[in-house]
Amino acid sequence: MKNIVSNKQGETGLQQVAPNTFKELVQLKRQGDRAAFNLLLLDVLPEVKKFVNRRLDAAVYQGNFPKSKYKAEDFIDQLFIEVYESIGVVENENDFYIWLFKKTNDLVDRTIAVEAFEDSIFKNIDEFATSEWKLMSEKFSAEADGDLIMREDLEDVSYHKSKHTLITLFDQDEEKDLIAQLDQNLSQEDIDRYTEIVLRNFPQPMHTVFELFTKQEFTLEQIAEIIQRDVKDVESLLREARAILYNSLSAWTRKN
Asked: pLDDT for 9-38, tens place per residue?
């Protein structure tokens, strides 16, 4: 597998409409119409809410805090307040959607830090040596028959489109062969469940980068701005995530 991460991503529909929404929000802020401001802001938050749900699921799975202690609505409510109070710092309407994810990511990070697990957020990916990932791979296989849906109230479980994610992420010939083999030998449900275990065991920075790249289709530069890290760090995290996911799926396929 080539250790090259493609940086060409397409904008989602919400990314395209966000600049015009930003202009209207600024006008509503000037008018002091907070109710209309929040109602309009809600239109561009569906993907933000999904992003929060996935971050919370990963945090719960890794033991950062108990299940159901926090809900996406808790962060969205706080986001309404912070966006209204600080929207003036956004100088360019084209930066607004990225800024929303940055604010959201900061809110989740601060919550995890308050739960006394700040060190785990910045865990060095080098700690995950090959031998450890081999052991974790065995754990993945052992847990593959378990129930992986940790939030009973997810509005749309269809966002766990593992096959689509894999096709987007793995574009080399040998990688496409793996996807074809998975598709031939395993059910889509099995692939979804197993992939979800792998993703939830990613350390927090890697999980966030992976989600923003594959689900939200942000570029490496945009992700670096959102999580406030160097672009090279983002690329390294994504490359490592690709390698771990590919190697784990390859090993799992051989066993099945």
From this structure: 445 678 889 999 999 999 999 999 999 999
Whether residues 130 and 241 share a domain: the answer is: yes
Q: 195 is written with which tokens?
A: 């992939």
Residue showing tokens 């929207």: 87
b/e per residue 166-189 (b: at least 16 CB within 10 A): beebbeeeebeebbeebeeebeee
Q: What is the pLDDT of residues 177-193, one digit of tens each?
A: 777 777 777 777 777 77
pTM here is 0.63
- Which of 119, 148, 175 is the endpoint of a domain? 119
CA–CA dist 256, 250 (Å, integer): 10
Amino acid of residue 47: E
